[in-house]
Automatic annotation (TrEMBL), chain A:
PROSITE patterns named in the record: ABC_TM1 (PS50928)
Record keywords, A-Z: Cell membrane, Membrane, Transmembrane, Transmembrane helix, Transport
Subcellular location: Cell membrane
Protein name per Swiss-Prot or TrEMBL: ABC transporter permease
Pfam families: BPD_transp_1
Stretches that traverse the bilayer: 12-32, 96-121, 133-153, 187-212, 232-252
Family of the protein in this entry: Belongs to the binding-protein-dependent transport system permease family. CysTW subfamily.
Length: 265, 277
């Protein structure tokens, strides 16, 4: 028999899920609000999206973010793949130390990682800009790329590339024709997630951006300090849509593996 | 060959994480030049300056907010995870997808969404007016409460995943068996399910508590910038006061808080295990 408290907690859980959605839905709805005042409904309009397209500062920031995310996601995924292949050859202590270092940025507060990088760039008197942004985002995204690729690489049947080698492939051919195609999906998932993480990053960017390399979140953050506008709601709606597309691209199964581990059944 | 494969990631970790962290520790003991840059030398003055009541208040407030946020996220996270885990598999997938979307939604979007909701005359206010809870526009934002809601909202999905991960493998019949053997609702949870969820709860606590300390966007946008977290302090010291040595000292303190909280949570989990074993 079902306990009354089971019913209560089930409703509480449904309430929490609603709590997760209401703010997002409100952003989407209000982005179509004709009124200048974001939260007072005054009829349907798409004019804020038009205004968004005319905001050159915002578009410039969008370009910076897209470039940084593109490069850092690619670097992180490549480093993650190479690390996974290298780690498969390590044993014992060396493997433990390497993986400890690799996942270290996951536990250290991001703000400290940002401060640390800024200190190094300062000590080297490096100019802050695209390069420092990309390096900062590489630090933030690499552990996630490694997490996904490592899991997939270890689950790979190692007899397959071995069979290719036995059949006369050299190491590169075995990698290019067997290993890589088998890892296509997890690599794509890793890349997409790294892209998303980099694209939305604000903490690391605060410390590693320079003049002329303001990212989209930094631009939006400074706009928000002056108050929320319907235009920002419109941008938020586009970002929600973008997230939805990324999730579909990664695939639910892969996403579940990343977030809650492999299937036990 | 192995070295070549490990080199890119290894160099990233050493060159962009480990060495920079050591430099921060070094800088925290350096004295500042007149522009707030690093001058070198060795002094404890930066740490002494952090003992000023203004800064101590920031650390106290941060620990309180992070603690409260962690507690709320753990309780709600457990409730949602239990609900998810007790649904049929197909349903679980769908519900999980529902939690994944807000989790990956842009952090800033999830923060400014609350400005819409909590503004005077906004959706929440209209609702409370309608049920007679309030009368006319209410100034809920910026406030500590709004800041706290923003924090819970930001970290709740993060807390749900690890707890659900530890509960989802559990056979539903386990709880039923305990019930058949005469366990009440509370005992089914406290003696059977919570111990199983413990590693997930521990992970969720760490993933909530430590990052909350370093948040700076939410207190500015939803809290009006008055009540600061350690994250705000570090950003202010670096970008506004331009006092790098002191900013470095505050960062080292944050690292120490991280280590301390890991030890405390680990210990708490071990004690719980002994109690329920």
């Amino acid at each position: 028999m079902k306990h009354a408290l089971d019913t209560v907690t089930a409703w509480l859980a449904r309430g929490v899920i609603a709590f997760l959605y209401i703010p997002i839905i409100v952003v989407v709805v209000l982005s179509f609000n004709d009124s200048e005042i974001t939260y007072k409904w005054d009829g349907f309009s798409t004019r804020w999206y038009g205004k968004l397209a005319d905001n050159t500062e915002l578009l410039a920031a969008l370009q910076v973010s897209a470039e940084v995310a593109l490069i850092s996601a690619t670097l992180a995924t490549a480093c993650g793949l190479l690390a996974a292949m290298g780690m498969a050859r390590l044993r014992g202590k060396g493997k433990a130390i390497f993986s400890g270092g690799l996942f270290l940025p996951l536990i250290i507060p991001e703000i400290v990682l940002g401060v640390a990088l800024l200190s190094v760039f300062g000590a080297m008197s490096a100019d802050l800009g695209m390069t420092t942004l990309v390096l900062g985002h590489l630090v933030v995204t690499l552990p996630y790329a490694a997490l996904i690729v490592l899991g997939a690489y270890n689950a790979l049947d190692s007899s397959l590339p071995e069979a290719a080698t036995d059949l006369g492939c050299n190491a590169w051919q075995a990698f290019r024709r067997v290993t890589l195609p088998l890892l296509r999906q997890p690599l794509l998932a890793a890349w997409l997630l790294c892209f998303t993480i980099s694209f939305g990053n604000i903490v690391m960017s605060t410390f590693t951006n320079g003049v002329g390399s303001t990212t989209l979140p930094l631009r939006v953050y400074s706009m928000l300090k002056g108050g929320l506008t319907p235009e920002i709601n419109a941008l938020g709606t586009l970002l929600v849509l973008f997230t939805l597309l990324i999730i579909l691209g990664v695939g639910l199964r892969q996403m579940r593996r990343v977030l809650v581990g492999a299937d036990r059944s | 060959m192995t070295t070549a494969l490990l080199a890119p990631a290894g160099l990233t970790v050493v060159g962009l994480v480990l060495v920079p962290l050591l430099l921060v520790v070094r800088n925290s003991f350096a004295s500042a030049d007149s522009y707030g840059g690093i001058q070198g030398g060795f002094t404890l003055a930066n740490y002494q300056d952090l003992l000023d009541p203004i800064y101590l208040k920031v650390f106290g407030y941060s620990l309180g907010m992070a603690g409260l946020n962690t507690m709320v996220c753990l309780v709600l996270g457990y409730v949602v995870s239990y609900y998810l885990a007790s649904r049929p598999p197909q349903r679980q997938m769908l519900l999980l997808l529902l939690i994944i979307l807000p989790f990956w939604t842009d952090f800033l979007v999830r923060t400014f969404a609350w400005i819409n909701l909590l503004s005077p005359g906004g959706p929440v206010n209209s609702l409370t007016d309608a049920i007679g809870f309030t009368d006319g526009p209410s100034q809920w934002i910026p406030s500590q409460g709004a800041s706290f809601i923003g924090l819970v909202y930001a970290f709740l999905p993060t807390a749900i995943f690890p707890i659900y991960a530890s509960l989802r493998g559990v056979d539903n019949s386990l709880g039923e068996a305990a019930r058949d053997l005469g366990c009440g609702w509370w005992r089914v949870h406290s003696r059977v399910l919570l111990p199983i969820a413990r590693p997930g709860m521990l992970a969720a606590a760490l993933l909530t508590f430590i990052p909350t300390l370093g948040v700076f966007v939410i207190p500015v946008l939803l809290g009006g910038g008055r009540d600061q977290l350690v994250g705000n302090l570090i950003v202010t010291l670096y970008t506004e006061f331009r006092n790098q040595p002191m900013g470095a000292a505050a960062s080292v303190v944050l690292l120490l808080l991280m280590v301390a909280s890991m030890a405390v949570f680990g210990l708490a989990a071990r004690r719980l295990r002994r109690k329920t074993a």
